[in-house]
Automatic annotation (TrEMBL), chains A, B:
SUPFAM superfamilies: GntR ligand-binding domain-like, Winged helix' DNA-binding domain. Pfam families: FCD, GntR. Keywords: DNA-binding, Transcription, Transcription regulation. It comes from Nocardioides szechwanensis. The keyword Oxidoreductase does not apply. This is Transcriptional regulator, GntR family.
Length: 246, 246
DNA sequence: AACGCCAACTGGTCATACCACTTGACCTGC
DNA sequence: GCAGGTCAAGTGGTATGACCAGTTGGCGTT
């Protein structure tokens, strides 16, 4: 087995994860109050600053409402959590959540073509050369993990060219959720990143400054793997349901 | 003037904002190291735990890289920041950033129709009734602020029906950026939220379970205000440029 | 019964001490 | 001279205890 970097989990990290689990898995309903910081510190066997740091981080993502002098209440994460929570929802307790994964694929398919269209509209000649270089690199390797990285680089360049802060931030959030599982997903994504030709067509459309063609080409890059993965996820889901009922 | 709730800014909040400003405005380049926690505490005249809390919160949003024993370095927020940073980018130092606002409008126009299509595909009969009720409420008031709130509720219901975690989280993030400025934006959005008819067409398409029609109808709801606002922002931008050069 | 005060509890902040880790200079042995 | 190990200094990580500041609810007064 290949050597892995040791994971060093700090105390606040641990507390954060535990409280997050309670909130996300419904152990504490929205509107309920959390135990006081002192009490939590006592129960968890850690110092109050450690608890405090975890709760403040959670408050920053709008999952808690902390009131000076009053109690700390849990908010409805489905209504208030931002996209930065995606990594924690995508893989919970070490398992991939099929419904979340499906929605990631759907979002990718919905947004990618729009970004490509914007890039076609705004990208200059330098962009085309850069994209071609990335596709060349993608085509030059046989390793699926490497190919995925090149594909990520490719989309990174497209997003840059789209010159949209919002899409850039969305891309960053999605990448943060995706990258940790990149190696595990290599077989599943092999179909997509193996199609260098589709990327070349997209590159040509972007280089030509043709938004509509670029949109369609991006769809052709993303759709096949999206469809087959969603089908696979559905099958997995049915299977899990059967196991539960047996 | 109407009484306003007092804003209570905690010490870590203040530190967070200051450091964030340095990072976002380029006062500290990516890769550079931050002063040590003790040093920062001394310079800012606050305690180390306060500094620590601010830095940890910043690290959670991937804007800093904190290494135990080593130094804390600044990361490139353009590459790593998630969508949750949007509120702070949209309005910086009290001013609306035109480029960011434009990208919000673009993203809204690109994503809204896709979400509507998903909702049409997945929504049941209960959804149609709920949406109609919201449009009725929207049509029943003359106050632009109230109308905006109803429009938000409308989209909230659509996003719910789309049954997609990712789009839900994106919507939450966008709303978090949008709501604080809701009152200021009332005149700008009046054009859109005044068109109850367009919402009714969209509602009918969703109720009919027709994704393609819903997509087109959503586009018609969002596009007019999007186009005119982007035009207004461009004019504003040119004007600012002229002021700079004069 | 209504009001106002106050004690108890909550989060907010600070100072300080010590632990754990990284770094780089220095020193050793070859 | 240089590869190796050693160690001190500096960094972030954690804990403790104290006190400030705001909220809440009960209890007494009116």
């Amino acid at each position: 087995m290949p050597l892995q970097p040791v994971v060093r989990r700090s105390v606040p990290d641990e507390v954060f994860d535990q409280v997050l689990g309670e909130v996300v898995d419904g152990g504490i309903e929205p509107g309920e109050t959390l135990p006081s910081e002192r009490r939590l510190a006592e129960v968890l066997g850690v110092s109050r600053p450690a608890v405090r740091e975890a709760l403040q981080r959670m408050a920053q993502t709008r999952l808690l409402e902390v009131r000076h002098g009053g109690s700390t209440t849990v908010r409805d994460f489905k209504r208030f959590a931002g996209l930065d929570l995606l990594p924690q929802l995508l893989v919970r307790r070490g398992n991939l959540d099929a419904a979340v994964a499906r929605s990631v694929l759907e979002a990718r398919l919905a947004i990618g073509p729009s970004v490509a269209a914007l890039a076609a509209d705004r990208g200059g000649p330098a962009l085309a050369a850069a994209l071609e270089g990335t596709v060349d690199a993608l085509a030059a390797t046989d390793d699926d993990v490497e190919r995925q990285r090149h594909a990520l680089t490719y989309w990174d360049q497209v997003v840059d060219a789209a010159d949209s802060v919002v899409f850039r931030l969305m891309f960053n959030s999605l990448r943060a959720a995706y990258e940790p599982a990149l190696e595990a997903l290599a077989p599943a994504m092999a179909e997509e990143v193996g199609q260098a030709g589709a990327y070349r067509v997209l590159t040509a459309a972007i280089a030509a400054g043709d938004p509509d063609t670029a949109r369609a080409a991006a769809d052709r890059v993303l759709r096949p793997a999206t469809d087959s993965l969603i089908a696979a996820l559905s099958a997995l889901d049915l299977q899990n349901d059967e196991e539960k009922h047996s």
